[in-house]
Amino acid sequence: KTEVSIPGMQAFLRAGNWLGRAPIGYDHYGPKTTDHTRYSHRQRMEINEDGKKLRQAWQWKLEGVQDIEIARRLKLLGLDIDNKRLSDMWKNIFYCGLITHKLLDGKLIEGNHEPLVSKEMFLRVNHINTRRPKGYKVKKENEDRPLTGDLICYQCGNKLTSYYVKKKGLHYYKCQKCKG
To answer: What does DSSP say about strands 109-110 and 170-175: parallel, antiparallel, or unpaired?
Structure first.
């Protein structure tokens, strides 16, 4: 079965078609859709009303508006999307008309769908996101609490975790399960 289906899926992708659900902002028409109103002999992806609102979100992002504010503005327009989902959208090359898939071994294919944004806009937004510092580092080990992960709770048998109380200036161990 895999000798036939995987090469077939690869050929389908190389032809510029999309496997799976359409990203937010697109309606998926084709022979294998579950919604019978979107049946079509050939696959096609069309930008829907949400897509037009997302196009505006890309423009706001270029203007320097933060994701939280973009999500709030989109909600006022009738599209409820959280800022974490927006963060994923900025990285998805589908929106600039390209397709990538693990079956394509890292190759980029020009898709058959209409791009929501230009490639230039996509690259500019991703350049904005790479300039910003990402997260913080969590130090797993602390020399003031050397027994973290080695001590066992006498009540429930789970490993103890450690923490520091700034007000008292003391280090403590506690069980996450029974709070002992």
So the answer is: unpaired
